[in-house]
Design brief:
Order of helices and strands: EEEEEEEEEE
Helix content: under 10%
Largest sheet: 10 strands, antiparallel
Structural class: mainly beta
Number of strands: 10
Shape: globular
Radius of gyration: 14 Å
Oligomer: single chain
C-alpha cells in the first residue's frame, strides 16, 4: 500500500460525469464520478452523483446503509426534501426512492450495492 498522500487525492473537477449504469440499464438523467473504487468488491463506494432536473431513482433497499450529503440543489427522498448542506444517514435495510425537481449534486457513500425493489 502506498504511503504517499498524493496517491489518494482525487481531483473531482478533472473527472467527467458518466451515466449511471446498473445491470446494463442506463438511469436516464443520473450521472456519477467515482471518488473511491474498491478493488476487492469491484465497485465504487464513494461517489458524486448528479441528477438532472426531473430525474428519479426507483424504490430500493440499502443492505448496509448509506450516507448522503447534498452539495447543491434539492433532492426528495421519501417525501423529505433535503437542501444544500443537508446530510442523511440511511440505516441498513432501509428503503426509499429518490427524485429531484430542480436537479442536484450529492456526495454518496454506500458500503454495499443497492437492491432495486
Amino acid at each position: 500500500m502506498s504511503t504517499s498522500i498524493h496517491d489518494y487525492i482525487i481531483k473531482s473537477n478533472q473527472l467527467e460525469w458518466k451515466p449511471l449504469v446498473e445491470n446494463n440499464f442506463v438511469n436516464k438523467g443520473i450521472y456519477v464520478k467515482s471518488l473511491r473504487y474498491d478493488k476487492a468488491t469491484e465497485r465504487s463506494k464513494t461517489i458524486l452523483i448528479k441528477f438532472d432536473p426531473g430525474a428519479s431513482y426507483p424504490y430500493h433497499n440499502h443492505p448496509a446503509g448509506e450516507e448522503i450529503f447534498v452539495l447543491s440543489g434539492e433532492v426528495i427522498i421519501e417525501n423529505a426534501t433535503l437542501f444544500e448542506g443537508d446530510y442523511l444517514y440511511t440505516p441498513p435495510n432501509e428503503k426509499h426512492s429518490v427524485r429531484t425537481e430542480t436537479g442536484c449534486v450529492l456526495l454518496f457513500s454506500v458500503p454495499e450495492e443497492v437492491e432495486i425493489e
